[in-house]
Amino acid sequence: MTQEQVSARHSAEAVVAAARAWIGTPYHHQASLKGVGADCLGLVRGVWRDLYGRDAEEPPGYSRDWGEVSGEETLIGAATRHLVLGDTAHPKPGDILIFRMRPGAVAKHAALLATPQTMIHATEDRLVAEIPFGGWWRRRLAAVFSFPGTFR
Prior knowledge:
Elements: H1 3-7, E1 10-11, H2 12-20, E2 32-33, E3 37-38, H3 40-52, H4 66-70, H5 74-82, E4 84-85, E5 96-99, E6 109-115, E7 118-121, E8 129-132, H6 135-140, E9 141-146, E10 150-151
Helix pairs in contact: 2-3
């Protein structure tokens, strides 16, 4: 992370507004273009670009089953390199949520918390949407991060 990124300050409200601007973007595997296409990682990358002006890093190509193939915590590893670790018991609006879709599986889905009760995410065959952050999602929460310089 550059000193410019560390010193950039953004309110949690600005993070949520940036994420909401992606609502309605069609799902497209490995894409990150607002209004054109994004997957869950592309959504987070796009919000990062909205906040900092460029990508933190360019991800390598990945298949839909990358987590099952590699068995590595690639998503959490990348988040740890660029984001600030948060508290899974108390996520806050503007935080990035990372999920394990099955117990013991590699974490491979990401979303942004919009309100204490809703999250914004991209999922296959759907448009980017703000949906309830209910019990089903909360039970699968593996990690929480915030963008560097986010204040509340």
